[in-house]
Amino acid sequence: MREPVGHRVFRERRHARSARRHQHHFAAVPRHQRRRARLVQLAPIDAGEQRRHAGHAHPVVRARRPGLGKAPFPFSERAHHEPGGHALEQARSGPQLVLERRAVPRDAVHAGRDGAREVHQHTRTHTESTCVTPQQRHLLRFIDPQHRIHGASLSARELTCASMPHIVLVAPHFLENTNRYISAFAALDGVTLSVVSEDAANRLPDALRKRVAGHYQVRSVSDAAQLAGAIKVISRAVGNVDRLTGALEQLQLPMAEARALANVPGMKPHLARRFRDKDVMKDVLRARGVPVAASALVSSVAELRAFIDKVRLPVIVKPQAGVGSRGTHRIESAAALQAMIDAGMVPTHEHPLQAEQFIRAREFTCETVSIHGKAVWRSGTRYFPSPLEVLETPWVQYCVLLPKEVEAPWTDFAEVNDAALKTLWGPETDVAGTALTHMEWFLRDDGQMFVSEVGARPPGVQIMPLMSLAHEVDFIAKWAELISFDRWTDPGPRKWATGAAFLRGQGTRPHVTSVRGVEAAKARAGAALVELKVPSVGQQRASGYEGEGLALVRAPTTEGAKQALLAVIENLQIRY
Ligand SMILES: Nc1ncnc2c1ncn2[C@@H]1O[C@H](COP(=O)(O)OP(=O)(O)O)[C@@H](O)[C@H]1O
Ligand SMILES: [Mg+2]
């Protein structure tokens, strides 16, 4: 059934208007493509051409990637040959579809051994093309009424999902590390990437900007409504959004809320809260018998005291949804509790605090790759010392070690890790259950293991580069592929033991006053030292416990990596 021409023209104008309105958000889309995006209708094949192919003509409508030399045709095997002599091929990528309609001799389509190539050869001179945004795909039905290219074969689902996902990555600022994530998605063949950020598009390095289909600037990436608004604009101008993702912990909840608002598949708020809210997380895990510290969300000093009466000191008091150990306190005595209250750290109804029984233990991580809720790969590191000790003792240098061997206690923890993730995801593993998760866990001297917390996002504290170095594989690229295609290829065995040392100073000034022992650290660490970021004198003191400097090491043995870390932290001295 055809839509009346009047409606069609109206819709085309509306799309053109909306494309114009949103153009300034899409500086990343090359100008010629933006212009072409407003064209919708193909001119009919001219009469002469029809005559030339009289009796054996197959007009072909083919979608291809604009501006790219190689033209992947993931749908070509689904080419739709209609009895009336029409073939339809479709693919989706980039900011819009490019439709080519070609007059093809029937023989070429049917007889060619390599159909696609044959078609190309026979139709070079008769190609016409136009672009539509994926939103305009309903108009495909009206491309050429005479040749009846039926919309039925162009279901929205087919066009948007299958092999060409449109990923929206939330990247707050275009910093070096964030740009690595953008670059990883942009480099994936078959992915259309859009970016939402607080930075303007022109802050993106040129080479990267060219590979981003859409960009939308928001005032705050932590505001779900702004993210949802961005998604709506991006879907209108670039195409239906298949995934909304971002690597930072603080983004996980706003992104989940935005997914719910803008109807994007993936983790929704109630699930994200299980990962983000320490109280909800522990309740859900405890209910399913996963070992966690006794805990309570306390809204008053009285509730905190009641919790302490129950579990006894020491306890940990920390924010309900923290990050980087900020605001985490160990309370060992009644006097320490009083001091905390006097210092104004008081739980209230508006600002409750997470109180937990203190677990005296060594601290480890477990990185898990899951596809649709099924764990397919694991890795793990050890923290030296625990983040809490690092926080409590400012002069202590902080290290993360990824051993060469896959062995106990990490292998023993796999079962607990599995149970914890399955419990947190519940039955909703379809899209949400495809993730690289970062779990922190405790191992007590008596062998008891406890889940400390889980992030449904790539690990921080340099674990991504540590895994990349250990396997000689880019884990950011692997994460991008996992999120885009639910795909994970085994990175093989660890070739190295690796480690990170976070360099922190001693002293009371707000900035770095001296750095000593750099040459000695380099000499002692030797070839194991792969990266050394030395803080500069005058540099502002870092706010987080990761400090101002960083060393990454790798060695053929775990002991070698440990020694290299020691060589750095024992020799390099920073003073504030
Ligand atoms: N129940 C606990 N027992 C012992 N140490 C804890 C406990 N909870 C937190 N910690 C210490 O505090 C650090 C920060 O707490 P965590 O829950 O991981 O918060 P964040 O989200 O800030 O990383 C942990 O890495 C650990 O060293
Ligand atoms: Mg933590």
UniProtKB/TrEMBL annotation:
It comes from the Bacteria. Pfam families: CPSase_L_D2. Gene3D superfamilies: 3.40.50.20, ATP-grasp fold, A domain, ATP-grasp fold, B domain. InterPro entries: ATP-dep_AA_Ligase (IPR052032), ATP-grasp (IPR011761), ATP_grasp_subdomain_1 (IPR013815), CPAse_ATP-bd (IPR005479). Residues 282-484 form the ATP-grasp domain. Residues 14-34, 65-92 are annotated as: Disordered. Keywords: ATP-binding, Ligase, Nucleotide-binding. The keyword Nucleotide-binding applies. The keyword ATP-binding applies. One of its GO terms (molecular function) is metal ion binding. PANTHER family: ATP-GRASP ENZYME FSQD (PTHR43585:SF2), FUMIPYRROLE BIOSYNTHESIS PROTEIN C (PTHR43585). This is ATP-grasp domain-containing protein. The lineage of its organism: Bacteria, Pseudomonadati, Myxococcota, Myxococcia, Myxococcales.
